[in-house]
Amino acid sequence: MSKDDSLFCGRTTDDAVRITALSGHTFTKLASLFDDDKITSYAVSTDNATIFVALKNLMLKKIEYPSMKTIKVWQSFHHRPIFRMAVSTGGTRLATSSNDSTVRLWHLGPKEGFSATCRAHNSMPTLLRFHPDRPYLFSSALGDYNVVVWNTETGAKLGSLDGHQSQVTGLCFNDDGNSIVTCGRDKVIMLWSCPEFQRRNIIPAFESLEACAFLPTGALINHLGESVLSEQLLLTGGQWGCLRVWHPTNGRCLLEVKGPLDRAPVTADGTVLTSKDRESIDYGLHSIVDLQLAHLFPTPDSSTSSVSPTDLLPKLILVRQSNHVEFYDPMRAKLTAEFLGDIGQVDQLCVVGKSHNRLLLADASPHLKLFVNPCGLSACSKEMDEGGKGSWSCHLVPGGHEDVITDLTVSTCGQWIASGSKDQSLCLWQVVDRDLTLPGKGPLAKVVLVKRLLNAHSAHISAVCFNKSTNLLISSADDNVLKAWTVKFDKPDLQSNANFHSVELAEWSVVHNAHQACVNAIDVSVNDQLVATASRDKTVKIWTVTKTGLDCLGVLQGHRRGVWSVCFSAREKTFEGHEQPVYKAVFLSNNRQILSCDQKGLVRLWDVSKPGMTETSDSSTGCKVFEAHEGRIWSIAVCPDESGFYTGGEDETLCYFKDVTQQIVEERSKKQEEFIQTRQVLDNLIQQKQFAEALRLSVKLDQPKRTLDLLQDLLLTDEDMSQKANNEMKSLRYSGHVAKLETALNGLLRPTAPNKDFHEDNNTSSEHLVQRLLTYAINWNTRVRTSVIAQAILNWIVTTWTPEQLLRWPGIARTVESLLPYTVRHYQRVSRLEEQLAILDYLCDVADEHQVGDITESSDPAQIPEVVDLNLSLETECELRKN
User: Fold this and answer.
1) Which of 449, 511, 644, 731 has the fewest CB atoms below 10 angstroms from its CB?
2) Alpha-carbon distances of 805 from 164, 288, 348, 353, 810, rounded to whole Å
3) Which UniProt keywords apply (predicted)?
């Protein structure tokens, strides 16, 4: 975390370093750093102006921030990839550790370069820390149970911190640098003196620890009172996922900040839902893997010169195993912001909230994730951001389940959520929005657990579904048992502070052996009279809701594989097109369209109302295809106004698709209107014989055929254009026609009066129109019939623009490559015609000579044949043809 609220996050999935800015509760992506070679580690200097990156090819990079320009690249001389890097507080030393069991020190500054190699470990060093004030480097390796101290100037070993019985995972210093704390997976905390490196205290933590940090002096007065005003307390985190505050001298645990497994909400009746015992909590996604105490500028616009070190605001950053980043105010131990560093495999997506403006996600974890103001749903929210685009700020919903959540269902009003899990429990949640009219700050919305039913089934719960009236809940489990639960809501007590309802959930109907295999999906009809269950036994069963329970009405057989999704429809039709198994399908546009997703990561949009083919990217199936994910898509959630939809899959990504159909229709209608209007102007210009203006409009309308016809008419017309032609062209054959053609082409270089009503943009500028005409000429040059027009255009271009100007045109090299072969072929053809004409002239001359000799020798004048002059000019020949 940098002082300007920039968060540097490294991901192992795409091997990139992402830089994100924190502003209040909103995160904005600033930049992304990646390389063709895999990034194995990175470090940021204390002044936040330099990023050091280690690559898989054993190279080191120095990159300037925020310009992201590479300043220097050098060889690390490690024999194996680098996995840990650290920069000293003053920014004068860089430490790198590799799997070759060595630590290398590099000097930073005016004379950058290699400083020393530290060799004392037997395996890969996993911990690197520079002392904030003294030239010390502390390192610990994977298989070593001690911490080695090095001199950063010479690389010499100064001492060792021995005493741990397992891997050392955390190390921190107090403000004056005279005390060092280490923690590890041996469940103890050790306090050391510096620079003596003597152990002063051992604190049993009873938890495998991963990180530790000293809090600022005087922190947590609001919890512990003024007795700790002058004390600097210690903070630890690890296996249990909770933060614990210790007194480093007497070893007492003074405060605990609950973790995801401890945040058991209070129900409406005042009882606390407890989770697992601490001793039974193992490592998982809830576990804390890193703790950092950063000091930030009071405002993002503050500079280093205008802010003193005492004015910097402390910020505690916590990273969990699930890549979830939490930001705390260390002075009050209050959660201020959350950053979704990564999501797991997305299993379920639901649009929730009273205004249907929140997005709820269930991934491969026991916890829900709530997107308060997501992109696409922000238009439905009163709390839109300034840009009106929403944000992907995510909040973790703790408590409830102890195992992976398998299915979610949302009531029609959007305020009630039911979830089922592998822990065989059912949970009912309520979405509570913050009253914006009341004073105070807090999250815009939160999901509150109002009812938890343990052991609702005797096996993993596979599917849950509310009916439309939200008074009945249907659930199924892997033991092929189908259950129906009655749901009764009580209004909240106005005298209490609770703003959520109390719920009564009672078992109403139980059906054993509902299917021969696990039920994947459940749906209830609009009138709440029918229930459909889809199973892996390749069947769909229809159940009627009676006064006594659920009765089987019929079995639908026809699928060749297990059925993963089911919805009631008013039509009976089969759609084929997916090449992989389909996992989810939902209706759109009043059951006139279907959205479906498959194992290949594709989303298809089917038109139910039209039996024939529609406009599509897949002409063989008659449906629109969207590439969404790189693996299975498990869930689809549609916005309430059907302006877009969300998809989530096993590639751990969440995609949002926006419906731009109306925008495309409006753009097409606008273009069609402009086209018709301009086409009428073009016809009027041709009728008025204003060919220059007509040529400009035809090219602007991108009509190659109309442009070719116009140019051919100009070249072959008999109208006398000698007044407009240049004097130099009058002596040439067809001089008037060539001059007329050039006059029309010159009309492309200037805006004409009839075009004043049309907007002149970059795509209709003079040079762009000439470039478009040149692309026409490339096609015309491939045929003999139109090659004369193409060569005339090419001659006009090369005589109007200089070679330097032509080289700046986009794609000019490819244009020349396309013109050259056919131009050479036309030149060879004309050369052969000239040779044939020369031979023809020679034969005519020879024939004339013989004919004159025969006439002279003949004495009878009546036998003298009529002499025909074959050396007629081309103009005379044209006149004879006309006559």
Assistant:
1) 731
2) 74, 62, 58, 60, 11
3) Nucleus, Repeat, WD repeat
Tokens of 859: 């004495």
The string of DSSP letters for 81-100 reads -EEEEEE-TTS-EEEEEETT
Low-confidence stretches of the chain (pLDDT < 50) are 264-275, 304, 384-387, 494-497, 612-617, 719-734, 752-760, 762, 867-868, 870-878, 880-883
CATH of residue 442's domain is 2.130.10.10
Sheet strand arrangement including 82-87: 82-87, 93-98, 102-107, 113-119
Q: What is the Cβ-side half-sphere exposure of residue 569, based on CA atoms within 13 angstroms? A: 18
Asked whether the beta carbons of 341 and 319 are under 8 A apart, the reply is: yes
Q: Which residues pair with 622 in a beta bridge?
A: none
Residues 16 and 148 in one domain: yes
Is the same domain home to 670 and 541? no
Find out whether 44 and 62 touch, Cβ atoms under 8 Å: no
Quote the Cα angle for 501-504-509, to 5°.
145
Please state whether the peptide bond connecting residue 81 to the residue before it is cis, i.e. omega within 30 degrees of 0.
no
324-329: strand order across its sheet: 288-296, 313-320, 324-329, 334-340
Give burial (CB, 10 Å; 0-12/13-18/19+) of 97.
Answer: buried
**Separation CA 623–CA 613 (nearest Å):** 8
Asked if residue 586 and residue 441 are part of one domain, the reply reads yes
Helix (H) or strand (E) holding 674: helix 661-687
pLDDT digits (tens, 9 = 90+) for 239-248: 998 999 999 9
Tell me the residue type at 768. H
Identify any residues that bridge with 532 across adjacent strands, giving them in sequence order.
523, 542
Short-list 567, 556, 558, 560, CA closest to 596: 567
| pLDDT score recorded for residue 442 | 63
Backbone torsions φ then ψ of 556, nearest 5 degrees: -100, 115
Domain limits at 779?
664-810
Domains held by the chain: number: 4
**Burial class of residue 860, CB neighbours in 10 A (0-12, 13-18, 19+):** exposed
- Which residue, 135, 162, 189, sits at the end of a domain? 162
Cα torsion through 174, 179, 185, 186, rounded to 10: -150
CA distance 399 to 391: 25
CA 315, 321, 327: angle at the middle one, nearest 5? 15
Of 429, 427, 426, the residue nearest 415 (C-alpha): 429
Instruction: Please count the helices (runs of H) and the strands (runs of E) in the chain.
Output: 10, 50
Instruction: Supply the pLDDT for residue 185.
Output: 94
Cβ-contact 381, 393 below 8 angstroms: no
| 481, 613: one domain | yes
User: Do 136 and 50 lie in a common domain?
Assistant: yes
**Residue 280 located in a structural domain:** no
